[in-house]
Amino acid sequence: MLTVENITGGYDATRPIIQEVSFTVKKGEILGVLGPNGSGKSTLLKVISGILPSTNGQVLIEEQNIKHFSPKEFARKMAVLPQLHAHAFSHTVRETVALGRYPHQNSWFSTWSEQDENAVKTAMKQTGVDSYEHTNLEFLSGGEQQRTFVAQALAQQADILLLDEPTNHLDIAHQRQLLDMIRLEAVQNGLTVISVFHDMNLASLYCDRLLLMDKGHVKAIGEPHEVLKEKQILEVYNTRVSSYPHPELPKPQVTLMPTATDERESYVVTKEQFKIRDEFVELRTEFPLKTVSSAVHNAGFGWFQSFVNRAVDLSYMCSDAHEELKSYLEQHDFMPSNTVAMMTAVAAKHVVIREFSNTTGSIIVAVTAGVGNAVDVSRAHERVSKPYIGTINTWVIINGKLTEESFMQAMITATEAKVKAMQQEEIMDPISNTIATGTSTDSLLIAATQNGTFMEYAGPITDIGKLIGQGVYETTVTALQDYKRAKGRL
Ligand SMILES: Nc1ncnc2c1ncn2[C@@H]1O[C@H](COP(=O)(O)OP(=O)(O)OP(=O)(O)O)[C@@H](O)[C@H]1O
C-alpha cells in the first residue's frame, strides 16, 4: 500500500506547487490522476517518487517512509515513467529496456542474470516492442518510443508503477493494448499503479479510482462516477461536459459540450415531408433529428436524418433481418448509418399521418396498424405460440427540444395512448379472448428537431404530452379502423 500524507512540495521551497495532498492506494489498485494543465499532476508524481522534495508531509510504502530506502531499494519498490524522456537516441530498444534492470544489479551490467534477461524479454513482449529490439530509438515513431519507455519501467519489476500520460502518442489500438496489459498486471500480479491521464474516458475505463487535481489541491477522489460529475468538471476545467453510461461497462463517460453556437437554423418538420412509396413510408429531414426507437435498424438513441417504415410480405422470413434491411436501405438510396428503419406487414398506402398542434408547438404522428397478432400483455404469459407478422408501428415527430427525461416520458405517453386506442376499437387477443394492448412486435419511434420550444417533461399533463396523447390515440384509432375495413370487418 502507498500512503501519501499531507504532502506539500514542488520545484522551489518558497513556492509549493502541490499542497496538502493526501490519499492511499491499495496493492493492485489503479489510481488515475486528472486535472487541467498546470494543476500539478506531474509535480505530484515527481514528489511521490522523490525526484522533487517535499516541504511537508510524507510518502509511505508499506508504512515505511520512502526517505529511509536506499536509492536501489527504492527503485525496486517504485518505477516511474516520466512525461518527458531524456531521449537516449543512440540506444537500441533492448538497451533502453535493459536500463530498467539497474536496481536489481550489484554493479553495472556485470551480473546480468537469467532473471534480468527474462524481465527484459517479457516487458518488450508485453508492450509489443520486441520485434524491433535491435533498432535505435531515433528510428522509431513517437508511439513506439513511448512503449519502449513503458517496457523499461515494467522491466524494473517494481511493486508500484507511476505513469505520466502513458498513452501519449499511442493510437487507439495501442492505448487499449497498453492499458489492458497494465490492468492485467494490477489484477493478476498486484501491481499498484498511479497514472496521470488527460483523457477522462480512458481513465474512467481503466482506473479503480480517480483523483482530480485543481491548482495543486485535491478537488475530488473516488470512484469514476464520484469524480466525473458534470458540475465538478465545469468548476475545475471551466468546460461543460455531459456524462453518459458506457454501453457495456459500469463506467461513466463524458463528452465535451462545445460553446460554439449551433449552426442549424430553426426549422420544423411538416406532414408534407412524408412520402408514401410502393414499398415503404419515408421521411427525410433537412437536419438530423434526435431519436429514440425500438426500430429494427438503428434502435436506441441517436441522431438520424431519414426514417423508413418498410412494408414486407406476410411470408417475409429472413435469418438475418438486420443485414437484409441494411442492404435494402442501400438499394433504395438511404445511408444506413443515418437512417432508422422498421418493418410492417401493412401496405405503405395504409399509413395514417396526422399533424397536431397547440400553443407549445406541433407534432406529426404516423401509424401503420396490423393487429393480426394482437396480444393482451397481461395474459401473454399464457401463450406458447410463436408470433407472426402483425405490428403497430408508431412514429411521433416533435418540433421542439426534449430532455432525455421527456423522450422517455413521450414513449410512455405514446404507448398509453396506443393501448387506449386498442381498447376503444375493441381489438381482441384471440387466445385469451380479452382486449389486446398491442401486438407482440410493435415498434415506437420518438424523434425531435431539438430546436424551438424547450420541453422539459412530456407526461400527460404537459402541453407536449397532451399533444402526444391525443395525436397517437386519434391516429391509431383511424389506422385500426382502416385495418378492420381492409379486412372487411367493419
Ligand atoms: N521545472 C519546473 N520548474 C518550475 N516550475 C515548474 C517546472 N515544471 C512545472 N512547473 C510549474 O508547476 C506547475 C504544475 O506543473 P505540472 O507539470 O505539475 O502540471 P500538470 O498538471 O502535470 O500539467 P500538464 O497537464 O500541462 O502536464 C505549473 O504552474 C508549472 O509552471
Automatic annotation (TrEMBL):
Keywords: ATP-binding, Nucleotide-binding, Translocase, Transport. SMART domains: AAA (SM00382). GO terms for molecular function: ATP binding; ATP hydrolysis activity. Residues 2-240 form the ABC transporter domain. InterPro entries: AAA+_ATPase, ABC_transporter-like_ATP-bd, AdoCbi_amidolase, P-loop_NTPase. SUPFAM superfamilies: P-loop containing nucleoside triphosphate hydrolases. The keyword Nucleotide-binding applies. The keyword Cell inner membrane does not apply. PROSITE patterns: ABC_TRANSPORTER_2. PANTHER family: HEMIN IMPORT ATP-BINDING PROTEIN HMUV (PTHR42794). This is Iron ABC transporter ATPase. It comes from Viridibacillus arvi.
